Amino acid sequence: xxxxxxxxxxxxxxxxxxxxxxxxxxxMSGGMTLIPTLKQRLARPSDVIDLGGLxxxxxxxxxxxxxxxxxxxxxxxxxxxxxxxxxxxxLADLAGHIGDPQVRNRGxxxxxxxxxxxxxxxxxxxxxxxATVTTNTxxxxxxxxxxxxxxxxxxxGEIITAISFPKAEKAAYMKFPNPASRYAMVGVFVAKTxxxxxxxxxxxxxxxxxVKAMEEALSKNFSSDAIKDIKVPADGLNSDIHGSAEYRAxxxxxxxxxxxxxxxx
Length: 265
Hints:
Elements: E1 5-7, H1 12-20, E2 25-28, H2 34-39, E3 47-50, E4 60-63, E5 66-70, H3 75-80, H4 82-87, H5 89-95, H6 101-104, H7 109-115, H8 122-128, E6 132-135, E7 139-141, H9 142-145, E8 146-148, E9 151-152, E10 160-166, E11 170-177, E12 184-193, E13 196-202, E14 209-210, H10 212-220, H11 245-263
Parallel strand pairs: 1-3, 2-3
Antiparallel strand pairs: 4-5, 5-10, 6-7, 6-10, 8-9, 11-12, 12-13, 13-14
């Protein structure tokens, strides 16, 4: 890897100051993406700001009808949290199937959401549950946060401090994982909340997206039969050695129906 200056700030304010003082600096949470990228010399930051020491950014709590999860909370902690299992068991289930035990005990929710890998699991939960992403400068609505391939609404010097997920009446996540990486070739999170039904898809396209036709059908009849004839266009979907765009389009329907059936159990 290339040389860089390493920093481990003791407060959020110190971390922000380091980031704002150098546009070539990069924040690091769990390092699940950044470290391999550095090792392969695909990135050359001047400074790496390690957020691992910022304990105030980790933790899970219930506020009203929502679960608030700190940006530095590890996947494993989300998966085993009694609060998450009680309010949104589908979110705990999702976290429990991210990567392998090593990844789940190192990677963080905030890091994954900020990175916005097209095959990451959390973006589907954020969008389907209509979560609110809180940063050091303000709040972002789920639908406005994910902009495209590895692109979000985060500005320079802005880091995720917490994500608030509204309680779900019914919800489930189903994914078809790549057998090697365990990333989602296609993952579908279906959620029925007080605000309505939302269906979010990850892995299939450059970024997470909603399927409005399925949402409308499920709002009238929350059953897999209601969406069995809905087809997702292959145009613009990912196509690679693991699966064509047409294959992924087919998987969206399959995973969506399985998610609805799971949510109804």
